[in-house]
Amino acid sequence: xxxxxxxxxxxxxxxxxxxxxxxxxxxxxxxxxxxxxxxxxxxxxxxxxxxxxxxxxxxxxxxxxxxxxxxxxxxxxxxxxxxxxxxxxxxxxxxxxxxxxxxxxxxxxxxxxxxxxxxxxxxxxxxxxxxxxxxxxxxxxxxxxxxxxxxxxxxxxxxxxxxxxxxxxxxxxxxxxxxxxxxxxxxxxxxxxxxxxxxxxxxxxxxxxxxxxxxxxxxxxxxxxxxxxxxxxxxxxxxxxxxxxxxxxxxxxxxxxxxxxxxxxxxxxxxxxxxxxxxxxxxxxxxxxxxxxxxxxxxxxxx
Length: 303
Description:
This protein is an alpha+beta fold.
């Protein structure tokens, strides 16, 4: 047995200083024969800043969140791991509580595994939590709702603190008009007018559980919670709201786009840097722990 790994009661125990090693699976360097392949499923809660990645899904020859996680897991576990996300994010989009799952044929010591994994991930991504879940859990298919937030820096001058995680609109926006416009989106609707043209979304009906806007000290947050989202849907809604906030259109224009199902009359697609995937919700039976930071009221309609 090496000084870097311990294998006790079929649990993989990673030393905090470990970043790689061929003997990580067991003291022999082999998967124990009595453990069937892919016996164990684990969930991850991941946060990242999107400007460091070309989106969440693996793509050839570019850095993505999936490639970063899978490459780091392979380095740590000496095993090819396929990571499944709860939903995709585009280039430049951030995540606070992205959920993923993966299968491995051995059990993990969670605390040491988490410490070791974060020690080899790049600085713009962190795994906040890892836990063993039932094999019936699927990060994408088990999801009940998803919550996105679009942040606008509506101060006259740009902010170095908000520069990478918000869209800067120096012109004063009419937040009350934007709030009235958001009211039209709640409920079950066909959101064809708010999806990218020719995107592969054959099912365009979504249930918007909650659509809210808040403003504090010149920072505007647009929060949207729905069972599912179409491609670019949140950013197109945000772009339409910005034009309503500039009083280019009245609040009723949001309803017009919704009823017309016409992308050409909606606003522009807002910048990716302002969008954050806040969290995804599951049934309590899946026991996926997530910090919601006193946002129970915001999430109440989705529960």
